[in-house]
């Protein structure tokens, strides 16, 4: 006997998610293996299994305004262990993008700022310029005193460069603009 | 043997000791590394979260450069970059439409699949193992270590195809061959919290604390790593972790290339051990004197 999930029993949101991420979350059978190995399960509002369940119920607001989508470390533990091969990291990527698009305020703003600052850094320099990144992040989050001691020690040990690496200056900007143009189409 | 070499951003800054020791070990083993000119950042965790095309195009730009420069297989020592490269290739391989789009973005058409390898894979081959044994067999005896592979070398196993997903052993084998006592433990592929190194340091400290604790429980004198982000979290943050949890670990964190280099007689200046936060030199001196630049 074969079973078919009727279109009324799955949420539109799950369909949108499939479209955006290429992952069909309806195959998840709620075994919780993803949640049991997730290193940030202790810190999140919803574990991956709960988040998927909510998405299938169409609880879009709850999912997009969760902390979990910003706290996922992309460590791939859940992806490696899921018996149904649900690519949760791709789902998380798509959910963050959807949240930003829908204008939902990121629930872990420092992580969102970090992503934004990293992107700008790569676009301009082609390579990561840690000192510039840290500066931008401090301005965005206003946590000016965070990790100052560690930063100074790293500087002394020359683990942080004074100046950016200019060898690939501007090399990434063309890739950025062509990718953006394509995605706007 | 010759490889295209992609150091990535960390090996040019926080992890210069990994870069220098890897290059020195390869020189000693007659493995030639030709750095890809014009390489760009692989995009790290930030880009794939922001744009599907960018997350794939940035790593593949480097493979395109390698192909244009006729470099063949590409060696990627940073586990995070390695994973981004492998994931990106995996995506375009399975989706011809995406491949076309990315090739247009890169203004390059790939002629063939370009191999992506991590130094642990290259140095674990039987011929290199023979070389290592003849150059340094037994030179690490007296050293009790655990090997920490972290998340991204082995996961997802279907994509990286590295060693084993849950229980990799290539590093254990290599160091065992050189005489180290490599202890078994439960944290070899756990996550140190790498992506939050600059943001949610509370999470990094907690996850890295568990790893340090796991190493101490089995009686290790040091942890050996193969990723610059793991190194940063376990070494540079160790003092903060000790303070927060009221413990004292003082556990040196080595890159596996530093121990390999030490065992096969790479000059100490190429190991750059003085750059670590937890001084790793004392422990090695117990095993034997560090090689001075003149000894070769
Ligand atoms: S491991 Fe896979 S099938 Fe199991 S609950 Fe998580 S996503 Fe669903
Ligand atoms: S990838 Fe994200 S959701 Fe999956 S186990 Fe890691 S932190 Fe948890």
Descriptive overview:
The complex is a heterodimer of chains A (185) and B (296). Chain A is mostly helical and 185 residues long. Chain A has helices at residues 12-21, 33-37, 48-56, 60-64, 68-71, 77-81, 88-101, 109-125, 130-141, 148-156, 173-184. Chain A folds into two domains: 12-101, no CATH class; 109-184, no CATH class. Chain A contains eleven helices and no strands. In chain A, helix 1 crosses helix 7 (88-101) and helix 8 runs antiparallel to helix 9 (130-141). The longest helix of chain A is centred in the middle third of the chain and has 17 residues, at 109-125. In chain A, 39% of the residues are buried. The model of chain A has no long low-confidence stretch (mean pLDDT 86). Chain B is 49% helix and 9% strand. Chain B folds into two domains: 2-119, Glutathione S-transferase Yfyf (Class Pi), Chain A, domain 2 (Up-down Bundle), CATH 1.20.1050; 140-264, 3-Layer(aba) Sandwich (Rossmann fold), CATH 3.40.50. The two termini of chain B are 22 Å apart. Chain B is of the alpha/beta class. The radius of gyration of chain B is 19 Å and the shape is globular. Chains A and B meet through helix 6, helix 7, helix 8, helix 9 and helix 10 of A and helix 3, helix 4, helix 6 and helix 11 of B. Bound molecules: iron/sulfur cluster (SF4) (2 copies). One iron/sulfur cluster binds at residues 28-34, 48-49, 52, 82-84, 86 of chain A.
Strand residue percentage of chain A = under 5%
CATH architecture of the largest domain in chain B: 3-Layer(aba) Sandwich
Q: Any low-confidence stretches of chain A, pLDDT <50, length ≥5?
A: none
Instruction: Give the helix/strand class of chain B.
Output: alpha/beta
Helix content range of chain A: 55-70%
Total domain modules of chain B: 2
Strand content range of chain B: 5-15%
Largest sheet of chain A: none
Number of helices in the DSSP assignment of chain A: 11
Mean pLDDT of chain B: 92
CATH C-level name of the largest domain in chain B:
Alpha Beta
Largest interface: A-B, 54 and 58 residues
Oligomer: heterodimer
The SSE order of chain B reads EHHEHHEHHEHHEHHEHEHHEHH
